[in-house]
Amino acid sequence: MRHRILLLVAAIVLVAIGGGAVIAANLTAERREEQHGRAPATAQARGGERGPANEFHRFRLGAIDGERLEPNRDDFAARTANDGPLLLFLPATRSKPAQYQRFLTTALGDGYHVLGLDYWNLGRTLSGTCEADARCYGEVQRNRFDGTRPSEFSDVSPAGSIVSRFRDAIAHLDDVDPKGGWGRFVASDEDIAWQDIVVAGHSQGGGEAAYIAHVRPVLGALMFSSPVESLGPVHAAWMDHPGATPASRMYAIDDVRDVFGPRIRGSWEVLGLDGPATAGGPDGPWRTDTAAPPTGWDPHAILTDIRVGTPDESHSRTIKDTTPLDADGQPRMLGLWQWLLRRFAPVDASSGAS
């Protein structure tokens, strides 16, 4: 009899604990919805209390409009000056902003506001999904950009889109760093100030950056080992039409040994990036080891020859933190990264800091 009483008491305690957990979870969800999907900065922030001035601030958005984001990995943000342009960086398929800290730090040193943004980049690669289906590329990229036009190839919701994540990330950064100038990148009517933003990305993220530059008039676009959006004579259909950003504000880079090189260079040709580097300069992509172009040259398609690793690894050597280092421990790509970044932000990183 005593054994039965003990079992009954234990059951009552477990039910009470479970009920309390459900109530707590519901209260947390309600608070997130009240704050337009953003939990308090103290709960979401993973960096220092000072916010993203001079050092990287790691945070997660958690949920937007009550919808839990997937994936939900760390975003990286920082700024030095409060009046610099914004670098919006998108990682490759299944990669995270945390894998590009050397490049993001370089942009920070050149006076950019920097935002390495997590987004839906799981599953198969864009090139593997679309192959020779010219219309597929734009359908997938549009859906990931703003959550519209879902299809069998991509079904990202508006809340989980790049645009939605970007707006919430800027709102969060404006909260934790109110003097940092973050709010000017999203107007009060929620229009994004694309003319002050350089979109950049690696592989699939670089293809998305190219697509964003096609549909929005951005300050500039930097594409690393991308876009991988051609296959023989077939290429992404959206490339056949003039974009909102001219080719003169777009730059692409890849290593000559990249296994995806033919598909990337096919995309460059369609986009008009592989013309002369300067008056009287060579046709086609400009070639280098890792050095920046000479003074007066302005190539928009660049092929490096790093000679480190396999052709598969070459796809990431130009931009990921696995990039080779010199004898001083600095990325061998540093000068070329700075040359690309300074096409749009030739500023003193120390000016305007707060």
SSE series: HHEEEEEHEHHHEHEEEEHEEHH
What is the subunit organization of this protein? Answer: single chain
Mean pLDDT: 85
Instruction: Determine the N-to-C terminus distance.
Output: 72 Å
Query: What is the number of strand segments?
Result: 13
- If helices are DSSP runs of H or I spanning 4 or more residues, what is the number of helices? 10
Note the overall shape. globular
Q: For the CA atoms, what is the radius of gyration?
A: 23 Å
Query: How much beta, percentage-wise?
Result: 5-15%
Which stretches are poorly predicted, pLDDT < 50 over at least 5 residues?
2-43, 47-52, 349-354
Question: Fraction of residues in helices?
Answer: 25-40%
What kind of sheet is the major sheet? 9 strands, mixed
Structural class category: alpha/beta
What would you note in describing this structure?
By secondary structure, this protein is α/β, with parallel strands linked by helices. 33% of the residues lie in helices and 13% in strands. The protein has 10 helices and 13 strands. The protein has helices at 2-34, 41-44, 101-109, 126-130, 134-146, 162-176, 204-215, 261-271, 311-317, 334-341; strands spanning 57-59, 63-64, 67-68, 75-78, 86-90, 113-116, 197-202, 220-224, 230-231, 234-235, 250-255, 286-287, 301-304. A 9-stranded mixed β-sheet has the order 1-4-6-5-7-8-11-13-12, with helices on both faces. A two-stranded antiparallel sheet has the order 2-3. Strands 9-10 form a two-stranded antiparallel sheet. β5 (86-90), α3 (101-109) and β6 form a beta-alpha-beta unit. The radius of gyration is 23 Å and the shape is globular. The N and C termini lie far apart (72 Å). Mean pLDDT is 85; it is low at 2-43, 47-52 and 349-354.
